[in-house]
Every structure is written in structure tokens, then in C-alpha cells.
């Protein structure tokens, strides 16, 4: 986003800022707005990784705090001591498979945690006499809308919510809370619902990094069901630009869908990754890597298709994705090839146990 000479500096709290999308957003914000105070709050659960922010360690305007968004005292103290005027809320349990195995953590973090943040921000906002330039950005998912058939139109901001997994149900609950705080209290909340993100710092359990890493290790590439499930893929840097625009120019109380305009079947995506790895990687254990593709039992309640209509954010705020899925996948594969030291330590015994439980 181009710098505005009249822009008021923000003091922003980024929850979940050591996770995948959150850490990419921290990098984007620090690079785009030097001088802004950036406070990252992250519990550093399995998917949070402080190494995601290692290159920003010398930035004196960045503060990292390890803690839980459900800790009201901690959140109150941060909002007060750092004089926060903007919250970008990424912190969430986000993996559907894990929500099927253990839904309780999803309700606690995604619903109770969001409520805790909203209440703390409301108290602070009232104390500061309700500045209208303050923002509470709630980052959510297209999965709250449910599943589409092949010929259905894409999700819009007015599509009814029909979540089909404990994960998407918990995110739907948090969306409703954020919306209610605008309509009940006038608090400047904005909701974004995005399609599947991909790019650097993505935890290995998710589809794209899982395929990249398993190809490098010569392990099977598990594809659910018939592989015909369709997702819209959004490069994470495009998503960060969209959120930047929403914070600065979005209208409080509104919802904005953010999509990549890249609908791809899962099996086609995996085959594209195989072709890229065959081209870019050296001395693969199995070549061609398509030999590793293995169809496994379908996920319970697996949504067939997601598709985002992002025309509202284009029309009202001027944002469009810049990256094609071909270009974004190439960038992503190159990143995983160049950053083995980042992903290898994440393949812990806990991760291997979870992997075997899901894909056995």
C-alpha cells in the first residue's frame, strides 16, 4: 500500500502474529509502516513459531509477548500500556482435521478468545472516548459459508452461514460476535473472510507444505477421497495487502471477502506441486514425484467446493490479487527448498503422531 503523507501512525496489536498468516502480516506491516508500534501476542502453540519473526529481531518498534488471548488481564494490560488503537486478530485454531479430533480447543480459542479481545478492546475504546479511527479487524475464513456444488455461484458477503466442521462453526461464532459488537456498541469492527492461503511459514500439516515436504522426504502424498474437492487459493502476500487496505479504508461494521480467483481441484494442485518439485529440487528420493500420490479415506464432513466472490473489496477498496496460482506456487516451492532449517525441526514426535492418526 502506498504511503499516505497524512496517515496517522497506528499502534497495532497483532494476535497470532507468530503463526502463518499472522507472521506474514507482521512482516508486511513492519516493512510498509516503519515507525508504527507493532505488538505481537501469540501463545506459541504447535503452529506458532517465533522463528517466523527472527529477521525482525532488531526492529525496536516490534514487541513480542507470549500469551493467551483468553487471558483478560494480559490483554487489558497490553492495550493500556501500549496505547493500542488497532487490533488485527489472527489468533485461531485453524486446522479442520484437528477440530474433528479435539473440538474443545477450537471453541476456547476461536470463540472465548475472540470474546475476550472484543470486551477488552471495548473497555479501552470507551476509556479513550471512542476514537472513530480505531479498528478491530477480525480475520476469518470462507469455510463459515459451508460447501458449494460445482455450478453454484461463489460465496458473497451475504451468503448464509452453514459451517460444517467444528473449526468453521467456531469461526462462525467469532464472526457473529465481532458483528454484534459493531451493531450493539458501535465498536469499529471489520470482518474479512478469506479463501485458502499459501506461502512462506506455513505449518507442515496443511496441504501445500505437506506435499512439498513429503516429496523431499520420499513419503506418500495423501489425497483425500477422489481428489476432486475444489479450493480457491490466495497467496498470503496478496492477503496481507488486502487486510492493510481494509484497516485503512474499510468501513466499520462491514464484511469483505478476500479471494485469489484461483479455483483448483486438490488433485490438480498436488500434481502441479509434483511438477514444480521435479523441476526445482535436486536428487529427489522418488522421481517423478507423482508416483507418491496416494488416495486416502475422505475427511469426515469434507466440504466439496469453496469459491470467493471478491468483487466488493475490489469495487469499494480497489484491491485485487496480484499473484497467479502458478506464480505463487513457484515462489512457495522455492521457499520450502531454501528453508529446510525452518521446517525440519517442526516434524516433531507430536506432529508424527498426529500425522499417523489422520492418514493411517
Features:
Rossmann fold, globular, alpha/beta, 3-stranded mixed sheet, 12 helices, 360 residues
The third-level CATH topology of the domain at 11-202 and 233-263 and 302-324 is Rossmann fold
Radius of gyration of CA atoms, rounded to a whole number: 20 Å
First and last CA, distance: 45 Å
Q: Report the β-strand fraction as a percent range.
A: 15-25%
How would you describe the shape? globular
Tally the helices. Answer: 12
| Helicity level | 40-55%
User: Could you tell me the number of beta strands?
Assistant: 12
Structure characterization notes:
The termini are far apart. This protein has a domain at 11-202 and 233-263 and 302-324: NAD(P)-binding Rossmann-like Domain (Rossmann fold, 3-Layer(aba) Sandwich), CATH 3.40.50.720. The model has no long low-confidence stretch (mean pLDDT 96). Helix 6 crosses helix 8 and helix 8 packs across helix 10. The chain has twelve helices and twelve strands. It is an alpha/beta fold. Strands 3-2-1-4-5-6-10 form a seven-stranded parallel β-sheet, sandwiched between helices. A three-stranded mixed β-sheet has the order 7-9-11. Strands 8-12 form a two-stranded parallel ribbon.
Reconstruct the topology from this structure.
Elements: E1 11-15, H1 20-32, E2 37-42, E3 62-66, H2 72-81, E4 86-89, H3 96-101, H4 104-127, E5 135-141, H5 166-185, E6 189-194, E7 196-198, H6 207-217, E8 221-224, E9 230-235, H7 236-249, E10 255-258, E11 263-265, H8 266-280, E12 293-296, H9 311-317, H10 325-338, H11 340-343, H12 349-359
Parallel strand pairs: 1-2, 1-4, 2-3, 4-5, 5-6, 6-10, 7-9, 8-12
Antiparallel strand pairs: 9-11
